[in-house]
Design a protein that fits this description.
With 113 residues, this protein is of the alpha+beta class. It contains 3 helices and 4 strands; from the N terminus they run E-E-H-E-E-H-H. The chain has 2 domains: 80 residues, P-loop containing nucleotide triphosphate hydrolases (Rossmann fold), CATH 3.40.50.300; 31 residues. It has a 4-stranded antiparallel sheet, covered by helices on one side. The longest helix is centred in the C-terminal third of the chain and has 27 residues. The chain is globular, with a radius of gyration of 22 Å. The chain starts with a strand and ends with a helix.
Length: 113
């Protein structure tokens, strides 16, 4: 089980996370969603200790995680993936639909001639 307790993170004078707490039990899947610059990546980086919180605890399988090395030993790692932009997905979908419609219309026009 992963427990995050009262996590506070600052970048200089800017506080990014305020008293964030959550629990994730074995077998659960969790998504962290929110607008840009809302602290999602900072939260994940804080959990795996790539960013040092000002305050708060991260406990995984009953042991506190204090460093990235401890996180790796516990197999608690951050997978960096290219983010998905829903706007881009929608544009690609519309483009594909429009392209396939144009192709169909062109074929039908050629058949009728």
């Amino acid at each position: 089980m992963l427990q995050v307790r009262n996590l506070n993170v600052r970048y200089g004078n800017v506080q990014v996370l305020w008293d964030v707490s959550c629990e994730v039990n074995e077998g659960e899947f969790v998504s962290v969603i929110g607008p840009n610059a809302s602290g999602k990546t900072t939260l994940i980086k804080s959990i795996v200790r790539l960013v040092k919180p000002e305050k708060g605890d991260v406990i995984f399988d009953g042991r506190e995680i204090r460093s990235p090395e401890e996180a790796v030993k516990k197999r608690l790692v951050l997978r960096d993936r290219k983010s998905i932009s829903w706007d881009d997905c929608f544009r690609k979908f519309i483009h594909r639909r429009a392209s396939s419609t144009k192709i169909r219309e062109k074929k039908e026009t050629q058949r009728s001639i």
